[in-house]
């Protein structure tokens, strides 16, 4: 069985460059939508023990689209990125994802995970062929209400250019096609936004 992968590039910029970057990405995308999402990060209950033995615990993430009132939670997990020697141009990492109907946060706890952190991301979502481009600022969470606090005007903008759905490395759909697609966006943004691979 072949694994599923995510292919991605990452970048960040200051608010003063928002208009120029927004214009260029919009010009080279098929669609653009507002984005507001909540993401909760979980780690295995024995994560510290795993770290003590030199293992990297597999994190589980739950994501919910807040722009759609009836949207379901999506659970996903990334494994360690493949080596820079194998894929110098982009981050390529095994990716598992599933949609959860009902209480995904309790479901994650049942799987043996504990909540580590949560963030809200607000900005724009673009589609370009097989890619999704997320451009957002992170919002802090109010400790009392657990609701997002709007980002400060000076908060850095983050950009993630990645495959919209898990990709298999097969003869029909080689990973090289996805790598080329994200590198194409990197070239389109050159001189305005530095997109690079990230080992996370």
UniProtKB/TrEMBL annotation:
Compartments where located: Nucleus
Tagged with keyword Transport: no
Chief place of localization: nucleus
Species this chain originates from: Favolaschia claudopus
PANTHER family the UniProt entry points to: MEDIATOR OF RNA POLYMERASE II TRANSCRIPTION SUBUNIT 18 (PTHR13321:SF2), MEDIATOR OF RNA POLYMERASE II TRANSCRIPTION, SUBUNIT 18 (PTHR13321)
Descriptive protein name: Mediator of RNA polymerase II transcription subunit 18
Self-association state and partner proteins as the record states: Component of the Mediator complex.
Entry similarity comment: Belongs to the Mediator complex subunit 18 family.
Keywords attached to this entry: Activator, Nucleus, Transcription, Transcription regulation
Function: Component of the Mediator complex, a coactivator involved in the regulated transcription of nearly all RNA polymerase II-dependent genes. Mediator functions as a bridge to convey information from gene-specific regulatory proteins to the basal RNA polymerase II transcription machinery. Mediator is recruited to promoters by direct interactions with regulatory proteins and serves as a scaffold for the assembly of a functional preinitiation complex with RNA polymerase II and the general transcription factors.
A biological process from GO: regulation of transcription by RNA polymerase II
Lineage, uppermost ranks: Eukaryota, Fungi, Dikarya, Basidiomycota, Agaricomycotina
One Gene Ontology term, aspect cellular component: mediator complex
GO molecular function, one term: transcription coregulator activity
């Amino acid at each position: 069985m072949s694994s599923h992968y995510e292919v991605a590039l990452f970048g960040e910029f200051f608010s003063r460059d928002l208009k120029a970057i927004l214009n260029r990405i919009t010009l080279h995308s098929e669609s653009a939508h507002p984005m507001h999402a909540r993401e909760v990060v979980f780690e295995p209950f024995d994560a510290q023990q795993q770290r003590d033995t030199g293992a990297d615990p597999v994190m589980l993430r739950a994501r919910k689209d807040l722009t759609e009132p009836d949207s379901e939670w999506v659970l996903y997990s990334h494994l360690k990125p493949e080596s820079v020697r194998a894929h110098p141009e982009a981050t390529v990492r095994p990716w598992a994802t599933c949609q959860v109907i009902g209480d995904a946060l309790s479901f994650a706890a049942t799987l043996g995970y504990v909540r580590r952190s949560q963030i809200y991301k607000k900005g724009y979502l673009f589609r370009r062929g097989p890619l999704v481009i997320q451009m957002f600022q992170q919002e802090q969470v109010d400790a009392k209400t657990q609701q997002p606090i709007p980002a400060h005007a000076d908060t850095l903008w983050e950009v993630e250019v990645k495959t919209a759905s898990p990709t298999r490395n097969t003869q029909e759909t080689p990973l090289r096609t996805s790598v080329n697609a994200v590198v194409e966006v990197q070239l389109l943004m050159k001189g305005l936004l530095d997109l690079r691979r990230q080992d996370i």
